[in-house]
Structure formats: C-alpha cells, structure tokens
Amino acid sequence: MKVYIDLVLFLNLIIDLFLLIAVTIILKRKTNIKRLIISALIGSLTTLTLLIKLTNTSLFIIKIIISIIMVITAFHYQNIRYTIKNITYLYIVSIILGGALYLLNVQFFYHQEGLTFYHDGLGLNIFVIIILSPIIIYLYLKNIKELKNNYSNYYYLDIYLKDQSKISLIGFVDTGNNLKDPYTKSPIIIVSKNKIPPQENYLLVPFQVINHHELLKCIKPQKIIIDNQIITTKALIGISDNNINIDGVDCIIHPELIK
Description:
It contains five helices and eleven strands. It is of the alpha+beta class. The strands form two sheets. A nine-stranded mixed β-sheet has the order 6-7-10-5-11-4-3-8-9, with no helix packed on it. β8 and β9 (229-231) form a beta hairpin. The radius of gyration is 27 Å and the shape is elongated.
C-alpha cells in the first residue's frame, strides 16, 4: 500500500488547524493565526510516526506530549488547569470530528449484506474531508452555543402547595419576566394550567398586556425549592391558560429568584 506522506502531512495540518480554531472559539482563548498554524504544524508531525515501528503505549505517550506542546504553542501556558482544559477540548472536538467522518464513510461508502459490510473501493478522499471538516465543526460549535445560551437557564423546580403536595417542574429563567404582585412586590412564576391541580382559593393579580389590563390567577405556595435551594422570597405561582412553548419547560421563573 502506498502512503503519500506529503498529502497526509497536509491533511493533518488542515484538520489540526480546524480543531485549534474550534477550541479557540469554545474557550474564548486569546491567540493569533500565526500561533495556530505553528501549533498545527507541530500536530501534523504525528504523521511521521507512520514511518517508525512503535508500540501502542509509546504512540499514545508521544501523542499526549505533542498535544501538550500544541496547546502551549497555540494558547500559551498559564497554569496546569488551563492547559489540561485546552487539551481536553482539543480531544473532545477531535473525537466529534473523527466520529462524524467515520460515520459518513461507513454510511455512504460501504454496502451491507446482513451483518457484513463491504467497501466499494471509494472513500472519503482528501478534498471531501477538507470540505466536510469545517462544516462538521461549525455545526458542533453552533449546537454548543445553543446549549450554552438556552439550557444554562434551565432549573429543577419543586413547588410545595398548602395541602403538602409537591409538584416537580422544569423551569426556565426568562430575564424578560418582570411580573410581580403590585401590592406585595412578590415575583411571580408562570406555570402552565395543566401542571397545577385545581385550587380552592386564588389571588387575582393585575398585569398589563398590549393596550389593556388583565387579571392573573395566582396561588401562594408553602415553599419553593429551585435546584435544591429553598427560596425564602415571597413568590407567587401564576396560572397560565396557555402552554409554555419552550423546549421541555413547564414554567417561567422570575430572574429575582435565582439571584
């Protein structure tokens, strides 16, 4: 089998550069393209191990050492924790990219008969890999950003009612939710109507919508626990007639309750 070292070196250089750029974006590291290219060049040197007969243990140690040199070159050295975090994310993005490319290769360039897979002679060539790699990394970064922006505001919520019953919900902190009882100044948690059993006594809290005022049915819970922390603030539970259209969310938490 012929191995073109120059092509393998070039491919490794490009992929390592994509990976380092991804780590820079995820961890918001301060660096420059020159340092990233030099670091990618160092990373591509692992290709030369193809010419040397090494044990799996030796190869693993060499790759770890080169990874350390790569992240220090790209992002400087501040402390051990900083360096380990850089290495960790470098490997996480590498696994994501490698796994995605492997899946595409198996999905589109292998034929299956029963439990047996046959390669049809084609495969992901260097140009396809160079084109697909930044697309895969971009999609990964986009999803990471979405998770960070959205799901970091998700909380577990336990509401204890006057009859000692408990309702467990998933809450979302909406910074735009400034709804309070105008008399007691109690922040209000908005809960979908179908999540709260019928109550005997309600408080009617006035609130303003576009061009007119309405009354919101509220109840006073015995206590509220958010992520295992007892909330001592005077909070009310507002009953919404409409379902909350946020992925996996049962209620909207007032931001004051998280401070």
